[in-house]
Design goal:
The chain is an alpha/beta fold. Helix content is 29%, strand content 28%. Keywords: Phosphoprotein.
Length: 299
């Protein structure tokens, strides 16, 4: 019997992009923090890419995060005083240069609120919270990455046989992700092969949708959920589904932007059938097909 959704708590790394505003990313995305190191130019790179850093034999691009999200870029004078946050996201090691590191703090992800309207159209912010009475904006790293390193179009569009498509079409599929870019990628993948689906932007809404559908006698068959979400995260969502007698026939596919074996093993611990590092459309569709096969054997 599983007693808890996950033993791995995720904190927040707080850092500065401007003098006054604090920003954060989840610590599971952070591999390391290092002082500024000399960068090598990368020809024809994105305007926000400052160059490449070589750290312990690994070469990775370094991005001016302030510029990437629309703030004034770092000046040459202040760059040498900055820090590089090395992230492991979407199967890619990337460094984000920031003006300063504040601290790592524990976080109750259930307390993350949606961005207020006063933030305007800053699409890179997925949520806000307060730490020591100071507003902290949670950045959407996946969206940043998609703008700077656009995905190969071929990776976004799966290939299916007619037989495989007809296996999936009758099933009720629920996609859950707090990242707009991830939702768009998932939607485009299924739209391209004419597979219907439903969408939720957070774990709690998804859980309620599944409960209502089950009560109405039209249960969902496949759940595709991000792991790292404010509020009810993917681990907790999978745990809730597996421990509900009316929901536990749903085939659960968790996906993560973290290239981490820990994430995958913990996904299985909470009852997920599949755990994928996102995003590769054919991998996702074939995971769904395995769910369709399991559904066919239980009907």
């Amino acid at each position: 019997m599983i007693k808890s959704a996950t033993n791995q708590s995720q904190g927040m790394l707080l850092f500065q992009l401007t003098q006054n505003q604090s920003f954060a990313i989840g610590t599971l995305k952070v591999k390391e923090i290092v002082p500024y190191t000399k960068l090598t130019s990368i020809p024809h790179s994105h305007p926000t890419v400052l160059g490449a850093a070589s750290l312990r034999g690994v070469t990775l691009p370094v991005i001016d995060m302030a510029k990437a999200v629309g703030y004034p870029p770092l000046s040459k004078n202040e760059i040498k005083k900055c820090y590089i946050i090395i992230t492991d996201c979407q199967r890619k090691l990337v460094g984000f240069l920031v003006r300063g590191i504040n601290k790592i703090t524990e976080c109750n992800w259930h307390d993350i609120d949606a961005p207020p309207a006063s933030l305007g159209n800053n699409v890179f912010v997925t949520g806000v919270t307060k730490v020591e009475d100071k507003l902290v904006q949670l950045l959407d790293v996946e969206l940043l990455m998609s703008k700077i390193f656009p995905a190969d179009p071929d990776s976004l569009h799966p290939v299916l046989t007619d037989i495989e498509r007809e296996m999936l079409r009758p099933l009720k599929i629920l996609l859950v992700d707090d990242s707009a870019v991830a939702r768009r990628q998932l939607s485009q993948a299924l739209d391209s092969i004419s597979i219907p689906y439903f969408i939720a932007t957070n774990g709690l809404d998804a859980l309620n949708m599944m409960k209502r559908a089950a009560e109405a006698g039209e249960p969902f068959n496949i759940l595709v959920s991000d792991i790292e979400m404010p509020g009810l995260d993917g681990y907790e969502l999978a745990f809730e589904v597996q421990n509900n007698d009316k929901l536990n026939t749903i085939y659960i596919i968790l996906h993560t932007s973290l290239s981490s074996e820990i994430s995958v093993s913990q996904a299985h611990q909470v009852g997920a059938h599949e755990a994928l590092t996102k995003f590769e459309a054919n991998e996702l569709i074939h995971a769904m097909l395995r769910g369709a096969e399991q559904h066919a054997t239980t009907v």
